[in-house]
Amino acid sequence: MDWAVLVNKEEDVRRKVFTRRMTIFRKVGRLYRRSEEVHRQRLYSAARMMKTLAATGFLVTQLPGYGKECFAPGRAGFVARKPK
User: Fold this and answer.
1) Would you give the distance in Å from CA 65 to the centre of its chain?
2) In the chain, domain spans
């Protein structure tokens, strides 16, 4: 194996923040390099996202998932297009 990614996910419902902490190991020669990343995402309701996108001129459609995969409860996706 040339690489590995370890992920810890945490959702702060009160503050509406999702945090993903990742530790990455990557083989370089005979040794492994280790790096760490922290990604924080602000969480918004689907209704608020649709309203905000529409207010800035987008035509918005909410998606149930990607392809055959449905989003987890409390998650949503969108297609937002600017009219010509």
Assistant:
1) 13
2) 1-43, 44-84
